[in-house]
Design brief:
Number of helices of chain C: 10
Number of helices of chain A: 12
Order of helices and strands of chain A: HHHHHHHHHHHH
Low-confidence stretches of chain C: 318-322
Oligomer: heterotrimer
Strand order of the largest sheet of chain C: 6-7-8-3-9-10-12-11
Largest sheet of chain A: none
Helix content of chain A: over 70%
Radius of gyration of chain A: 22 Å
Largest sheet of chain C: 8 strands, mixed
Radius of gyration of chain C: 21 Å
Order of helices and strands of chain C: EEEHEEHEHHHHEHEHEEHHEE
Distance between the termini of chain C: 40 Å
Structural class of chain A: mainly alpha
Shape of chain C: globular
Strand content of chain A: under 5%
Shape of chain A: globular
Number of strands of chain A: 0
Largest interface: A-B, 42 and 48 residues
Distance between the termini of chain A: 32 Å
Number of strands of chain C: 12
Chains: A mainly alpha (283), B mainly alpha (315), C alpha/beta (322)
Chain lengths: 283, 315, 322
């Protein structure tokens, strides 16, 4: 265990940028958890006197057109970012993994399921999400489902590819030929080997979920306007950008740095991954 | 070759049929009566009945689909509830903007993504490669609308070099010079996709550089520059070409946002506005056309890929 | 004896500090002579040939010695630099004919490319056709328009040889050129190499792990073990009476059709990795004739009457130590 930690430390030292990225992600998680302790103001405290204040003084990042404290809203925004990320990743894994594994195990079912995945993939991703929003209506939970649906397809494809390869591995063939049941093969051989490709996929999905959610917020089809999400903050700041450009800076930086950090971590995980699966998980 | 084209086209048509069922079905998945949703609470029963009849909602589902699909095949996508004009007309109105925007964006993507990717690969491991690769990953992590807003802030509001929004047709007064309205939007739209193509070009150049035939080429005594252009680049571009279908899909997705940021009268903004107006016939029609276009482009990419690579069996 | 066309002396190739893959290899090749370089995989024979050709992969470099082609030092020069300096008359044929030709270019273009670099006077298409005739590819005009994937493995290897000949080489390096081919095709390609070597008066460095091929083809043999040469000599006496215990061990591993013993002989243990080699003879841990002196200091080269050299304290014609 200690040896493992030491080697992990060494790997981080080799990739300073990735280390910074991971540190930033820790920061985001901390600010989400301890938001009420960190934020100096409630995120929705309106203060008409102090509208559109530039950064400085009591308002570290300035205030918006309602006089709300930008820093506090950015801190609370981390909660929504995490919620969206965790939600989208869980949904896409919980649906994509069974579809992919079943398709690999039962080729006839697989042909049907993969064809359905193909059909979903023939919709440009944001349009697919928008379509679902039209059906479900807007809201945080529905945004998670809508973005999750996009990555259901990619996750199912990757899982299918990896599972097919694993199924053809000599030791899996051997286990099957000795009468190992399907359930045994899946739990003992396929799923454990899939962890690292799935972790890579999860970090990329987490990153793109941030961008997707921000786009939905910006179009006014994501989180309700009163929720302090980074995307909503950007959407609201749009008409004030010439007067209060800082409103554009902070939430945008948070989205970019979060997505960038997740991409860095995903790249690092991919480089550590079994080379057999690298081409399957290629972005 | 001929048989391959037939088979591949058949598969694309099947996908299109399945996709059209999804698109058709979606209006029926909306909870509540879509007619009430479209017309709002103040609708009179007569209005509701009239719209129901017009949308054909009283017929059995299968028949409704067949009528809708049959009409679509004849170029009739129904009437817009909001504009009271044919959906095809609504799409045609936005087509010029969207097509020009997509074309300009593609020019940036190909013009920057590929050469810079080649440069990064040639200088693999040097500072310029690390800088460019890092920049590419950063750009791929940036929301397009945020880039767009900053471009407006700096180049339109600040420096005044380009207009900040709108797009008058190039057939109106101003002619081709109206394209300047599309410069900032196309840059915003190109940024993440050019970054993706850059990364892909670099990776596939490095993959190809490890191939045995590149060593053969070096052994012949050809100059390194020729080895890169004739042997590495040519093969590396094959992988890049095959990614263009995907790039196109990403482009459409992000165009929806970009057109909204820059208030461009394109198809993407029409989708968003139609969603907000609950103009379902327009949403259905636009998505059907886009999926159709996407499938055609993917088919063309696939076919051209096969023509470029002599190894692929065309039977 | 004629002056050597290729002369390699004390070549050292390293993949990093204290990680020498090739440790002081020396050999000469005369015009019209085939030198068979034999050894197990990983013994450094391919790296020796790539170093001679100037094609070492990045991260691996020549750290000592000299390589002379017709008296000109060409060490550390890449092929195109050699062409620029007018000393590029060397060519190489690789192991994998399947992957060594560019899949998207026609055969003709790939040959003409080499002609244009090395043979300014010749008309590329005419010369390409002539080269295909030389390597016995029938219907040359038609085949020039073929893509590599349309040819069989043996044909592709002939094309590789044609590309090599387009460089008008004084020395041809062939790195396991027949390993990936069927046995019958293998024999044809070997015959072709022998013939071209004689008719063009070319020196050939033929690298293989297959002693049978060497016995059939080579004029002289150099046996490599763990990055160094252990024995060199003319092919007939060397096969008749190997002097180094490793060479003898290799030969004992060849199946003997006249023997009833179903078990093949093996050499116990495995070759050391480059960073595991300590002082003394690298074969000592596996050698049946080992003595204390083998584990200390450098091992001298000894010659016998027929000029057969072995780097061994106790070559096989001498008395074995007690």
């Amino acid at each position: 265990m200690t040896a493992h930690l030491i080697s992990l430390t060494r790997q981080f030292a080799m990739r300073p940028l990735t280390t910074l990225g991971a540190a930033f992600l820790v920061l985001v998680v901390l600010s989400a958890v301890f938001a009420p302790l960190i934020a100096p103001f409630p995120p929705d405290a309106i203060d008409p006197v102090n509208r559109l204040l530039p950064p400085g003084g009591a308002h570290l990042m300035g205030t918006d057109h309602f006089g709300r404290d930008t820093f506090s809203r950015v801190v609370y925004g981390a909660r929504l970012a995490l919620l969206i990320g965790v939600g989208v990743v869980s949904f896409s894994l919980a649906s994509g993994v069974p579809i992919g594994v079943l398709s690999a195990l039962y080729p006839r079912l697989g042909r049907v399921l993969m064809r359905m995945v193909d059909v979903l993939m023939s919709f440009p991703s944001l349009l697919l999400a928008l379509g679902l929003i039209v059906i479900l209506g807007q809201g945080v939970f529905n945004a998670i489902l809508a973005i999750g649906l996009i990555y259901l397809t990619t996750t199912a494809r990757i899982v299918y590819g990896v599972a097919l390869r694993l199924r053809a591995e000599p030791y899996v063939e051997a286990a099957r030929s000795m009468g190992a049941g399907t359930w045994w093969v899946v739990t003992r051989h396929i799923l454990p080997n899939m962890i690292s490709p799935l972790m890579v996929q999860a970090s990329f999905v987490f990153a793109f979920a941030q961008l997707g959610a921000a786009a939905l917020d910006f179009l006014g089809l994501g989180a309700p306007p009163d929720v302090p999400s980074w995307g909503n903050m950007l959407a609201e700041s749009r008409i004030y950008i010439t007067r209060a450009s800082w409103l554009l800076l902070w939430p945008g930086m948070m989205i970019v740095l979060t997505a960038f950090s997740l991409n860095l971590v995903g790249d690092w995980l991919r480089d550590r991954m079994d080379p057999r699966f690298r081409d399957v998980v290629r972005k | 070759m001929f048989r391959y084209v037939i088979r591949r086209t058949g598969a694309a048509i099947l996908t299109l049929v399945a996709a059209s069922i999804v698109i058709f079905g979606f209006i029926h998945m909306i909870p509540g009566d879509p007619v009430y949703v479209m017309l709002g609470d103040g609708a009179t029963p007569e209005q509701v009945a009239a719209l129901r009849t017009r949308l054909g909602l009283d017929e059995p589902l299968v028949l409704q689909y067949l009528i809708w699909a049959g009409n679509a095949l004849q170029g009739d996508l129904g009437q817009s509830v909001f504009f009271e004009t044919p959906v095809t007309q609504v799409i045609a109105d936005g087509a010029e903007t969207s097509i020009l925007l997509a074309t300009m964006t593609m020019v940036w993507i190909v013009g920057f993504g590929i050469p810079v990717g080649v440069l990064a690969a040639i200088r693999q491991g040097r500072w310029i490669d690390q800088g460019l690769s890092g920049l590419a990953m950063l750009l791929a992590s940036v929301p397009t609308f945020w880039v767009g807003l900053y471009l407006i802030l700096i180049f339109a509001a600040g420096l005044g070099w380009f207009p900040s929004s709108g797009f008058p047709s190039i057939f109106d007064e101003g002619g081709l010079s109206n394209l300047r309205y599309l410069i900032l939007p196309s840059i915003a739209l190109a940024a993440p996709n050019a970054a993706l193509i850059l990364r892909l070009t670099r990776a596939s150049m490095l993959d190809v550089a490890r191939e045995d035939y590149v060593r053969t080429a070096r052994a012949k005594g050809i100059k390194p520059y020729r080895v890169v252009t004739r042997h590495i680049l040519r093969n590396a571009l094959l992988a890049v070409v095959s990614a263009f279908g995907f790039t196109f899909a990403a482009l459409i997705s992000e165009a929806v946002v970009t057109e909204t940021v820059f208030a461009l009268p394109g198809v993407g903004r029409t989708v968003v506005q139609s969603i907000l107006r609950r103009d379902y016939p327009v949403i259905q029609g636009v998505i059907l056309v886009i999926v159709c276009l996407y499938l055609v482009i993917n088919l063309l990419v696939d076919l051209s890929y096969r023509m470029l690579d002599p190894r692929v069996e065309l039977e | 004896m004629t002056a050597p066309v290729l002369s390699v002396s004390d070549l050292v190739v390293s993949a990093g500090p204290k990680f020498d893959i090739v440790r002081g290899v020396s050999f000469d090749i005369a015009p019209g002579e085939i030198l068979g370089l034999v050894g197990e995989s990983g013994c450094g024979k391919s790296m020796t040939s790539l170093a001679a050709m100037g094609l070492l992969p990045s991260g691996i470099r020549v750290s000592g010695g000299s390589i002379q082609l017709n008296g000109t030092d060409i060490i550390r020069l890449a092929p195109h630099q050699r062409v620029q300096r007018g000393c590029g008359r060397m060519a190489m044929v690789f192991q994998e004919p399947m992957t060594s030709l560019n899949p998207v270019l026609r055969i003709g273009e790939q040959i003409q490319e080499a002609v244009r670099v090395h043979d300014r006077a010749a008309s590329p298409p005419a010369r390409a056709r002539e080269l295909l005739d030389m390597v016995r590819i029938p219907d040359a005009t038609h085949q020039l328009r073929a893509y590599p994937h349309e040819l069989s493995g043996g044909m592709r290897q002939r094309v590789m040889i044609a590309i090599a000949l387009a460089c008008r080489p004084a020395v041809l390096i062939a790195d396991e050129p027949t390993t990936a081919l069927d046995v019958t095709v293998q024999r044809q390609v070997l015959g072709l190499i022998r013939e071209l070597c004689d008719s063009l008066d070319m020196g050939v460095l033929f690298i293989t792990h297959d002693l049978g091929v060497v016995a059939q083809l080579a004029d002289r043999v150099a046996v490599m073990y763990a990055g160094g040469l252990v024995e060199t000599g003319d092919v007939v006496p060397l096969f008749a009476a190997p002097r180094h215990p490793y060479t003898a061990g290799l030969m004992a591993c060849l199946p003997d059709p006249n023997s009833d013993d179903p078990m093949l002989a093996t050499i116990p243990g495995s070759a050391p990795r480059p960073n595991e080699i300590k002082q003394g003879c690298p074969f000592a841990p596996r050698c049946s004739r080992v003595d204390d002196i083998c584990r200390r200091g450098a091992v001298p080269i000894t010659f016998n009457d027929s000029g057969q050299a072995a780097r061994c304290h106790f070559p096989l014609t001498c008395e074995a130590p007690e």
